[in-house]
Amino acid sequence: MDKFKEIRPIVLGVVRKDNKLLVSKGYDKSKNQEFYRCLGGGIEFLEKSKDALKREFKEEINIEIEIGKFLGISENIFNYKGKDAHELILFYDAYIKDKDYQEKYNLVDDDSETEAIWVDINKFRNKELILYPEQIFKYL
Known about the structure:
Layout: E1 7-17, E2 20-28, E3 33-42, H1 49-61, E4 65-80, E5 83-96, E6 104-109, E7 112-120, H2 121-125, E8 131-132
C-alpha cells in the first residue's frame, strides 16, 4: 500500500501513566517541525485492529501490551514531508505491564530508530509541544 496515494487504516495506543503519555518523536523536514505521536501503525488486510496494535508495539519497542477500551475513530488528512496523506485512525487505551515499564524505549520503525518517551500531557495541551493527530485530544 502506498500511504501517500490511498486511505490508510491505522491504530494508535493511548498509553498513560501519572499524567504522562507514551509517544515517539517525529520530524517533518518540509515544515522544519518536531512533533510527537502515540505508538501504533498500519492495520494489515484481514488483521483486527487490536491485533495490529499489539503487533506494532512488539515490533517497535519489543513489549507486550494490554488493550483497554476502544476510544473512537477519526479521519486525518494531512501533509507530511511535502506529500498529502489520508488516514482513518482507531484509538484504544493501552497499558504496559509494570515489569515492562521503562523511562524510555528504543523504537524501531521501518528503517529508522528513535525513542519512545513519556511526556507530560499538559505540554501538549498548552501547545509547548505538538501532538498529532489533533483529534487525539478528544480522548485524553
